Amino acid sequence: MIVAAAALPGEGGRWLLQKRPAGGDMAGLWEFPGGKVEADEGPVDALIRELHEELGIGIAARDVAPLTFASGLAGPRDLLLLLYHVATWSGDVTALHADEIGWFDTASIARLAMPPIDYLLLDSLRERSRG
Ligand SMILES: Nc1nc2c([nH]c(=O)n2[C@@H]2O[C@H](COP(=O)(O)OP(=O)(O)OP(=O)(O)O)[C@@H](O)[C@H]2O)c(=O)[nH]1
């Protein structure tokens, strides 16, 4: 499974994470917004679709750039997680899908309960926060 996810930058080196809804897969864990890349779409198209569905924001492909990726097992499934930096967007970020959203610096992200693969993304996110 390929998943496209977004690193959305906020004030002071913070990034947006959302808490997966109760009752579902990996309930209560914090993650980067995004979702599965469907068979008929590319990863950036999937990201644009998912961010509209989950956060109600509009992003343009020209504002999306690869940041890093990680791979491993997510439960029984083999997952490739593509993390994209999203420079700008239109509309206000709204939690349409998540139980909660928040803006966290990388030290705080490291202390959140996340799917295991997400911890592998943190080095690149730290570098990007300094840049
Ligand atoms: N969006 C997102 N998904 C992640 C992250 N880390 C991680 O392991 N995942 C996993 O990647 C998959 C993302 O698919 P999805 O967001 O479409 O999940 P979903 O609820 O539709 O999955 P489901 O239909 O199998 O329950 C989930 O299994 C999720 O747990 C992350 O940082 N962001």
TrEMBL record:
It comes from the Bacteria. GO terms for biological process: DNA repair; DNA replication. Its EC number is 3.6.1.55. Keywords: DNA damage, DNA repair, DNA replication, Hydrolase, Magnesium, Metal-binding, Mutator protein. The keyword Cell cycle does not apply. Residues 1-126 form the Nudix hydrolase domain. Signal peptide: none annotated. Its cofactor is Mg(2+). One of its GO terms (molecular function) is metal ion binding. Belongs to the Nudix hydrolase family. This is 8-oxo-dGTP diphosphatase. The lineage of its organism: Bacteria, Pseudomonadati, Pseudomonadota, Alphaproteobacteria, Sphingomonadales.
